[in-house]
Amino acid sequence: MDADTILRIKPVLTKYLHQFDDCFGRVTTRRHLDTYVLGQLGDLPRKSIEPMADAAGTPPRTLQEFLSLFRWNEFAVRDRVQQRIAGRHAHPHSVGILDETSFVKKGRKTACVQRQHCGAVGKTENCVVSVHLGYATPEFHALLDGELYLPEKTWHEDRNRCRDAGIPEDVVYRSKWRIGFEQIRRARTNGVRFAWMTFDEGYGGKPPFLRVLDEIGQNYVGEVPVHFTVWTKPPAVLYREPARQRTGRPRTFPRLKAKSNPMSSVAKIASYSPRFRKAPWQDYHVKDGHKGPMVWRAKRIPVWLKDADGLPTAPHHLVVAYHVLEPDKVKYFISNAPEDTPVETLLLVAFSRWKIERMFEDGKGELGLDHFEVRRFQSIQRHLILSCVSYLFLAEFHEAAWGEKSGFDALPDSHGDALSGSTVASWRPLFPEVRRTDQPAAAAHSTPKHQGEPFAPQTNLGPIARTWPLPERPTQMPVEAFVAL
Fold first, then answer.
1. How much is the pTM?
2. Could you tell me where the DSSP H helices lie in 324-437?
């Protein structure tokens, strides 16, 4: 925003920031919130502390201490952001999106920095990584949360280094999916409700993460890696000892029956499973782009996952999809949605993940999300939370001033890029009221209720010209692998 726009919206911004007054112990500390948010919203070429302080006539040292030393409750600020979104932007078709982003940093002193894969440059680089939770509806999207990822080997196990970077003793290594689940649970505590959750294979490939979402009754559609294993037919479960006497150590029940069918990877299922081959491929016209119609070919079959006790869960959806112009790029999705959920809905949720990439792009391009030059843990964490404050105002201002096209109509192409054009499928017809009538997760000692093909048949959206089938290359397989499929 330029200076004239900032001047025009200053009364609205002042009123918006007043809701955070009680998160600050002193009025003088609270005033720095205005300086920081105005700096992020302004048109400065670099939105780090020094240029923002210079533009506001504040000593840079003071603004640095605002992040690092001054006493204020950044967690209460985050809660207030989430409570505002829950109160003002609740929607029956909301989607929560979990993802991570990275920031290139030089040296070894910045908290949580190490050489690791950096999505910002697409290669291994010295960087820090943060996990974020986004919130999206047809008319609105914003960042709900952001948290630094603490690497295990280079940081968690070196507490002296952690103390030098200002990392508290109670901040320990947590896997990214655990950080993400804590963010989801925290947002729900603050009143945010997600009709759906979606995430990439970095989170979908973690069975414990999927299990905890099942336990809280959260519908999701998540991408999974090719080696993710499932059952295409639930294995037999024994619940008591046979009548004849047995010798040796007592066995635990319930348990899988001996020689039950093994699990198989989703890639093998897509290539060799007779059940999968019998299901018809269907074409789904996502939208029209500058290269022509964007068509995804997909099919869905029921599968069973393994619960924490090694027993089969309730049936899940396995959706396999590929862009008809790029048949070698296959995507695999797992969902715990109700059995009668249309494939269109599952695809629409799955391909809505690009929204958080847009949030990262806006955050870095408009708010200087990646411009921070502080090194200590608390300073970076506060910067991430203040960026959520600024992003929420920017999103609400944009919505009030110009309105926004329903974001989920603008689905991405196979590379994740959203293109202009009209879509055949729109948001509301593809998001019927979905209510889980089954239990969020199968009880540890219950038998699977569905043994056959429980899902409703897919609906074809019409013939699409120039589509290619997924290459199927029959090869010799062991009998055990074939039985698993």
1. 0.83
2. 343-350, 354-366, 377-401, 427-430
